[in-house]
Design a protein that fits this description.
Its EC number is 2.1.2.2. The protein is an alpha/beta fold and about 190 residues long. It is built from six helices and eight strands, in the order βαββαβαβαβαββα. The chain binds 5-O-phosphono-beta-D-ribofuranosylamine.
Length: about 190
């Protein structure tokens, strides 16, 4: 059986990591088994580390605070990923700006909580909520050297029926938990080079 290995990078709560572990990890799609082979987190206190433990998975903590520059941190992350035979790296709430040390060397996708190219950056949920847009949404895109600007792979939108920021955020996460696993499966069962 063909096995494809993914690495998941996260920084905080890890609800999207959990969705990947529940819906993708160890499962077979079109005869291809997708395996979460590596977890990396830059925050030693991230809740996602505990979530992963419940699935029997350990997380490699690479704390950005231990590195003098973004490049040195990225090199440590790239070196870790390269220890394994990783077919695709997933940024699932990985809240670090990446340099070309990472983006030139790692084939990765990123989850972003807005309809890109609108509302790039770390405050996409609140920025989109406070805008006059009548729709919100979620994007998955290839990671490139420009922040939140790589080619868009998948998007899902919703209508602004929700009244509170909390409801808006909840709706985004609900969509994320479906869209990211679905996109990973699609890429790994379609792209022969993935
Ligand atoms: C998600 O909204 C993701 O789009 C953004 O960070 C959040 C991570 O949530 N980049 P979680 O850690 O997966 O719960």
């Amino acid at each position: 059986m063909v096995v494809k290995n993914i690495a998941v990078l996260f920084s905080g709560s890890g609800s999207n990591l959990q969705a990947i572990l529940e819906k993708v990890h160890g499962k077979i799609f079109k005869g291809i088994k997708i395996n979460v082979a590596l977890l990396i987190c830059n925050n030693p206190d991230a809740k996602g580390i505990e979530r992963a433990k419940k699935f029997g998975l350990d997380t490699v903590v690479i704390n950005h605070k231990d590195y003098a520059s973004r490049e040195e941190f990225d090199k440590a992350v790239v070196d870790e990923i390269n220890k394994y035979s990783i077919d695709l790296t997933i940024l699932a709430g990985f809240m670090r700006i990446l340099t070309p040390i990472f983006t030139d060397n790692i084939k990765a996708i990123n989850l972003h909580p807005s309809i890109l190219p609108l509302f790039k950056g770390a405050h996409a949920i609140t920025d989109s909520y406070h805008s006059d847009m009548q729709i919100g949404g979620v994007s998955v895109h290839w990671v490139s050297s420009e922040l939140d600007a790589g080619e868009i792979i998948a998007q899902k939108t919703f209508a602004r029926k929700t009244k509170t920021l909390q409801e808006w955020e909840k709706k985004i996460h609900k969509i994320e938990h479906k869209l990211l696993p679905k996109t990973i499966i699609k890429i790994l069962t379609k792209d022969k080079n993935a």
